[in-house]
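the five lines:
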Amino acid sequence: MIQRKKEHWFKMLFVWQGSVLPQLLPRLLVLFVLSCGIVYANGTLYRYKIPLSPAPFTIFGVAMALFLGFRNNASYDRFWEGRKLWGALLNDTRSLARQSFTLTNYELTSAEVRHFTQLLIAFTYSLRHQLRKTDPSFDLQRLLPSPLFESLKAGLYKPVLLMREMGLWTKEARKNGQFDAIGQAAMDGNLNKLSDIVGGCERIASTPIPYTYQVLLHRTVYLYCFLLPFGLVDSLDWLTPFVTVFVGYTFVAFEAIADELEEPFGTEPNDLPLNAISRMIEITLLETIGLPTPEPVKADPEHYTLD
Amino acid sequence: MIQRKKEHWFKMLFVWQGSVLPQLLPRLLVLFVLSCGIVYANGTLYRYKIPLSPAPFTIFGVAMALFLGFRNNASYDRFWEGRKLWGALLNDTRSLARQSFTLTNYELTSAEVRHFTQLLIAFTYSLRHQLRKTDPSFDLQRLLPSPLFESLKAGLYKPVLLMREMGLWTKEARKNGQFDAIGQAAMDGNLNKLSDIVGGCERIASTPIPYTYQVLLHRTVYLYCFLLPFGLVDSLDWLTPFVTVFVGYTFVAFEAIADELEEPFGTEPNDLPLNAISRMIEITLLETIGLPTPEPVKADPEHYTLD
Amino acid sequence: MIQRKKEHWFKMLFVWQGSVLPQLLPRLLVLFVLSCGIVYANGTLYRYKIPLSPAPFTIFGVAMALFLGFRNNASYDRFWEGRKLWGALLNDTRSLARQSFTLTNYELTSAEVRHFTQLLIAFTYSLRHQLRKTDPSFDLQRLLPSPLFESLKAGLYKPVLLMREMGLWTKEARKNGQFDAIGQAAMDGNLNKLSDIVGGCERIASTPIPYTYQVLLHRTVYLYCFLLPFGLVDSLDWLTPFVTVFVGYTFVAFEAIADELEEPFGTEPNDLPLNAISRMIEITLLETIGLPTPEPVKADPEHYTLD
Amino acid sequence: MIQRKKEHWFKMLFVWQGSVLPQLLPRLLVLFVLSCGIVYANGTLYRYKIPLSPAPFTIFGVAMALFLGFRNNASYDRFWEGRKLWGALLNDTRSLARQSFTLTNYELTSAEVRHFTQLLIAFTYSLRHQLRKTDPSFDLQRLLPSPLFESLKAGLYKPVLLMREMGLWTKEARKNGQFDAIGQAAMDGNLNKLSDIVGGCERIASTPIPYTYQVLLHRTVYLYCFLLPFGLVDSLDWLTPFVTVFVGYTFVAFEAIADELEEPFGTEPNDLPLNAISRMIEITLLETIGLPTPEPVKADPEHYTLD
Amino acid sequence: MIQRKKEHWFKMLFVWQGSVLPQLLPRLLVLFVLSCGIVYANGTLYRYKIPLSPAPFTIFGVAMALFLGFRNNASYDRFWEGRKLWGALLNDTRSLARQSFTLTNYELTSAEVRHFTQLLIAFTYSLRHQLRKTDPSFDLQRLLPSPLFESLKAGLYKPVLLMREMGLWTKEARKNGQFDAIGQAAMDGNLNKLSDIVGGCERIASTPIPYTYQVLLHRTVYLYCFLLPFGLVDSLDWLTPFVTVFVGYTFVAFEAIADELEEPFGTEPNDLPLNAISRMIEITLLETIGLPTPEPVKADPEHYTLD
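prediction for all of em together
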């Protein structure tokens, strides 16, 4: 599943694709030009020397390290929790598909098992569409029987309504004597887990890191970078713009990555490859009940986390 | 669900709304005026030069970074745990609503299912009111049958009493042969989870971060800020007030945010949007059992975490 | 439940009650006097100048920040885990009380349900007494029937013996046909959770943070503080004692708080308010089965975490 | 199970085997030669003095410590989570093997129990082969009956298909009256856990730490190391190359270890000893059902984590 | 259970017993002598002045703090996880003992319940012996009936075989009509937890922190300490050996503690008191079924964590 091959340590220094560098270039250019101006003016502003020594930068440095570290950990935790939720989705849908024919009297190849598996796949796609605010109609139409598709059209929380359908499927199966209460309860336990997954994804999507944190950190990072040339000009002279841009790059890039990871369900380069994961769930579920499987999603050069 | 649109990196530097800046302005003004006085007096106090070199500030810096980092992590963990508990509330009430008609013989549209769902919604609202110490009468009256509402009026722990009602509902349903023991046990398991959620919220609300921590940190931060001008005046001269206020802003703001997040169930700008979440639970539960749904809560410009 | 009202930021700087300052005063006085002596002697010891520059302090500072941070996190985790365990105790006893009349055929107001609830309350009090090594006789006598109270008197692990009684209660109820196996298993699951809570509390109470850590940290902090004046005297002169005491206060206080929180079940000011929590459990359980409830524990000005 | 004997503290300083030093030697040599050139040229580049003072290095240092610490924690967490998943695999397969003869009417030594145990062992090996992308044919052929082996050959997710077989085994056993629904549900619960383990391993294997992080960190570390001689040459003179290489070694090695641990299922020296663990699972499962056990995997001098 | 009484803050500075100081004395002596030599030679090596300024030490310091902090957290986590596992063992054996007479029809004092409890105690002791690679014969012989003891003698994984016996006990009980399927499943769930505990302990015991980490950290710490005198000699002169030894002590001791805690199941002073815990489990289980209890293990002055 892993596409990324280990880069040679030397070549990795000059990677362009897949770094945040392209996106940050304009800001770094502004920083470079500004630094050049400050060197030219010898660190004066309207003929008044700005006497910034390294001392304030050490103090700022402590604050910034603190803020950046916190922000980055919080963002990465969100990213990784999102990934765990989608991993749990894979596990639970596999378990439910297996239970649909081992805990009931249905045959592996029966229409009922197939319908239940389609519900699981439709559930997966509709969750992805809800998180990305895209239209699920295409996927739901190809996976669900027409009447059900129609009745879902106006639904606000489609994945929840599909879970209701699965619950009703278990009720129906028990009525038909395919099931006993124990087996139904076992499947119901996994439906509860699906409910936790839906809610967990909604929680991450709807509750960003408090906005004040973002503003405060953003200000600290950029002011630090734009004041840096005043602090370096006396000792570094014409090297100032280069050092400023390099130091600035590391801090600004760190903040930019944290910003991207914070919302793991989006479609930016480092977000979760929900397309590939949902297709993979479709493949493994269909294989489990012995049906032909579609092709996996092609590795997207813009997404590095999973092909 | 996400209202906040990505701000341009440059415009974000000058955001006013949603930062803690307005609230901190008076303190920063005091700091500014004080710094100006110290510059004017050349860092002397009663004609006696205060020879503060940067060395003590580095030492303080280590202590403060340590304290601020700890306080901030502890506060954010409380905020995020509170959010997780309300997320779990969403998941569990959805699961219970589903179980009320898939594990029993009740129809989706029966009066019993509807009553149970109303109990769940009333439970949600009464938990919010308990955490915010507001009066739940309005919400309980519109959701519950009159006799039940009356009997709850004097209750100390209303959410717990509503859980008791749900437990009695399952007992009643089993007596009426709508249920077997297995199904009742499955719903009972989810009632246990509700109990964990209530207790978890009460725990966060009733046990703040130990007060001595807050006092110690508060003192360290403010003394650091008010001593800073003495340390900077010799090298920065008339720039001292500006640098002091900027450095002070980052530290004081960081502490202020931690202070706000620490009690996530309040009504300050960065607290959890319990109004919107409880309304959302009402909507999704009613949709699950096929009833008309009310409007979601309008995005409150004072709350940034969820509309 | 929250008593503490938000202090004004300025008044909080001068709080006395509830900080660890009173307890640390003697040590800080020693430090102050010592510093004065060193300033008077110009940093010499037996006429030999102690040439401590700030460099060693920076090195020490890194070590100390590392140690203090670790110790503090470990202690706070223990405090918070202890709180979580007592929160879980609240949740589980509520769940068990509810189950005693919803999963059985017993009426809410029957003598059996009342007896079971008294067992739960007695369990709570006896756990508190075991953790604090106090005598549980008073509470057990008022809550339990005489024969049971007598038979428990010599018990080593009274909470465990009370759990046994609860288990036997479920066995009895099943024998009497008030219960089926499913219901008994559901209650048994919650008894398992009670067992986890007892064991978790015993674990925290019996396994302190390894003693070598405490010794090493203690030495580092105090040696740092007592050497500090030698490092500051040359640049700060008569300001040395004040700066030393202030810096020393922050470090010593941080260690003292960690030391207090480490054993959360004690009776020091920042320990968990087990009295108030166990009374609260008594109140909510009695309310659940419709009995009159006692008064809550009055807010103890020496305890800040819960009234 | 632990092979590594405690090294004497002095001898440990000169360990060669098992450190990442051999692998890093070429890079450190490049760094050494470069440093020598810079010392020879007195820190000038094309006759232009590069005036790098320690100040920028302190600033870089903060950034790098932040990045390295984050990367290292994230990698170690992945390593340890991978280890936990394989530990859970050991626990669950043991539990399932035990259940196959205690919850059913099958004898310990019956053919059915033996077949189920072989399924568990085959599951373990096929998971290892899937994670390492190696060919499972040899192991599956020796463990499974021919028809089953043939039917699995073309499977995409072989461990999942083997879980399906285990599910069908429980269905079969219940049909044959060896089992009741309760027992089947209990085993089904452990199959759910196996599903979680498979998914957890796939998640770690398919989702590396976001690539941008790696690039950013890699650049920061190497640029830091290659600029270091310019900063040290003035004060250290001919010692510069030695100090540079030693400092460089610690940072570069730290990054290299993080890089190795990040993918714990590979075959590099510090990766998880999946061969030894899967053999150990085979041994303990066979012993549980009273069959002769194979030899454990010999300690591989290239793997230090488990023999 | 807590033996350690709070030490006075002043006396604690001079504690000898229970610190790692005795063990580190030889290394610190080497360091002291070396420092003296360097002071005598004025920081020259073969008449060539080693111009180490504090700058490289600051850079090293960052690296070392990073490494030591990581190593220490990882080690303490292992220690605490080991403690949690043995705490869970206490909880689960208590729960199983209770279930053996509340979920079955057996009397509290019956031979079957007694036999099962002996199995639980034997399980506990055999796990301890396996983790410490000691001979379990003495304990198993006194606890188990002869035939069972003989059949276990050649077993590789004795705790697992004892779990098998417990599973067979439940099967037997059900055959004899003492049990229904539900009760057996409930006990089986706790046997699963025992399986998780065994596997968790084996995981910690068999997978040390990757060896490369240890080597890298060890080298960094000791090289730092042995280079320190060169950096301090110019400013501290004859104070150098004392400061070096004190700074060295803190770092070396921190590494030594981490090294001890890393393998929590050993018999070093800070390792877990498995003897006392297993005896405590024996006592509480025997008390639960009303049998006379042995004496607890005497507090071992070499072990500080639990008597």
